Amino acid sequence: MTATLLTGIAELATNDPARSTPSDPLALQYDAALVWQDGRIVWSGPADRAPAADDRIDAAGRAVLPGFVDSHSHLVFAGDRTEEFRARMAGERYSAGGIRATVAATRAATDDQLRSNLRGLVEEMARQGTTTVEVKSGYGLTVEDEERALRLAREVTAETTFLGAHVVPPESADDPGAYLDLVTGPMLTAAAPYARWIDAFCETGAFDADQARSVLEAGAAAGLRGRLHANQLGPGPGVALACELGLVAVDHCTYLKDADVAALADSGTIATLLPGVDFSTRQPYPDARRLLDAGVRVALASDCNPGSSFTSSLPFCVAIAVRDLGLTPAEAVHAATAAGADALDRSDLGRLVPGSPADLVLLDAPSHVHLAYRPGVPLVAATWRAGRMVPPVDGSNWQPITHG
After folding, report:
1. Digit-coded pLDDT (tens) for 280-292
2. Strands in 253-345 per DSSP E
């Protein structure tokens, strides 16, 4: 039950819902301190009023944020799609078809190979400030391979998503209806014990709205919450379907009609934007400013995957969101923390208030603004998950000054 005091914080982003406002979504505190005990925050406030604690760490004038919550990733995979990326940079258009290359490599990999890659990416994320990550299946597309993807994902996170409806695999190309029956039948039965969520790629080249609806309804009957990939490659019915079904979040949202924006605002469904995808595929960026101004809640996630967004860095996504999506630095950080948590229906995460997990990030900078002001610079000096520090990133010039 050791209590730890982190003091000397130049700027503390609490995301306190009781204090957050449109002009100050992060509910900032200055010259602040933070105390955690048994893995949870127990106090925050002015440094000169901080209570005594067993251990004291000096932030030395740096900023502290809640740990990033990455609500959309695909980390259980094998193989490499460098050639696809090279071709895309040379002018080829992105399509969903490249997923099948990863499926072949993933099926051929051993459990240990998949586990090693998965854990390496999760650790890479942690060194960049991500303390919670959602992980999808979707690169196995057989009963056995989808089950093992989720079984492995469950070793690193409770936020696991069954994505058997990613694309129709090559062996089912002549009978996609039979594959859909497999997804909603035996595959779902095998996957459900290891999943919290169910998802579908509702897009041209993948699954249409009726197919996506059947997947989500089957998942709901099995006790899984629904999510949806939608409106990534062009206008489509996915966002409207997500809003109709009252899903917590719908992801991508690159191509939106006015009716889609209105539906998102009316339903309360969170629009999770994935700017790393649009950067990597040279798609247009979604207009986050339009969404926020219409009353839509917006989250940011990495969509880390080997094909369309092979980045594990939410700081990079924050910088893009400020530069190209129309968010302020504070809005972008809020979208990658508290709103990302809300997209997972986890109001306990993404906030630094009494009772919340001590998941936090120390920046090697005095303000959250530096995440956009200094894009590409490794500013995460340290990350704590449930009050336990993960190793600082290479090159950080901060070391904890601890007084027992």
Report:
1. 999 999 999 999 9
2. 270-273, 298-300
